[in-house]
Design goal:
alpha/beta, about 240 residues, elongated, 5-stranded parallel sheet, Rossmann fold, 6-stranded mixed sheet
Length: about 240
């Protein structure tokens, strides 16, 4: 199948390799790129002692330029969404990692189950902007103290119409993978998408969650499939039914 990946370059390339191994034809369409705030991430890390939470590997990429300065913090309990994010954390040296295979709500529940291990101050959430509110809302509901520090910002990329025409009009695309609500909003706000609905008449929009699917315009909702668990393995499994 011909599959468009709407992730940022670094994570998108990893997804493309998985798709190629599955026998699909992957095409990358980044709609945002991260701007890392390494100094802010470092200050937050050095000023705290408790557990850390990350919902994206971009937080790890924000820390990575600090090099050996982060070594005293690599043993801190780190909560990560997904195996890929956890692997990136392990690659820079974190060695006490708890993984949630769901989204923000599931991560908050995982952290709650480890509350006895968190006696060194509030949880440090190394976050991005913009971001979904589910994780922080879950922590608040569970009465878990936390400190949110934004250490990266996603900056919009607006692809040329020529690129979009090549991806969607010149040759039919079977599926578009949507990993976040913000990405879905960016995609469907592109003028080319709004002006050329016929180019998507046979395209499936595969969404990581119900919240992401909510960003798909009503006329295209019949084209949506949603992963039963919000992780990439279950998202890619939808390709067998798309």
């Amino acid at each position: 199948m011909r599959v468009v990946v709407t992730r940022p370059q670094h994570s998108g390339e990893r997804t493309m390799r998985r798709l190629a191994q599955m026998g699909h034809e992957p095409l990358l369409l980044p709609l945002a790129e991260p701007v890392h705030h390494t100094e802010d991430a470092g200050h937050a890390l050095f000023a705290t002692k408790g557990a850390i939470a990350i919902t994206s590997a971009e937080a790890i990429r924000a820390l990575a330029p600090l090099g050996s300065d982060i070594e005293p913090h690599l043993g801190r309990l780190l909560f990560a969404v997904g195996k890929a994010t956890a692997k990136d954390a392990a690659d820079v040296g974190f060695n006490n990692i708890a993984i949630s295979e769901g989204g923000g709500t599931e991560l908050a529940a995982l952290i709650s189950s480890h509350s006895a291990d968190q006696n060194n101050g509030p949880l440090l959430y190394l976050a991005g902007f913009p971001r979904a509110t589910g994780f922080e809302a879950g922590l608040t509901e569970l009465h878990l103290p936390f400190l949110t520090v934004e250490c990266y910002r996603m900056q919009d990329i607006v692809p040329d119409d020529a690129v979009l025409r090549r991806l969607f009009a010149d040759t039919r695309t079977d599926a578009v993978l949507l990993y976040s609500h913000e990405t879905a909003k960016r995609f469907f706000s592109l003028p080319f998408v709004g002006h050329n609905p016929e180019a998507f008449a046979e395209t499936r929009f595969l969404c990581l969650s119900e919240a992401i699917a909510g960003a798909v315009p009503e006329p295209m909702r019949s084209h949506v499939d949603i992963a039963d668990v919000p992780n990439e393995d279950r998202l890619l499994a939808l390709l067998t039914h798309a």
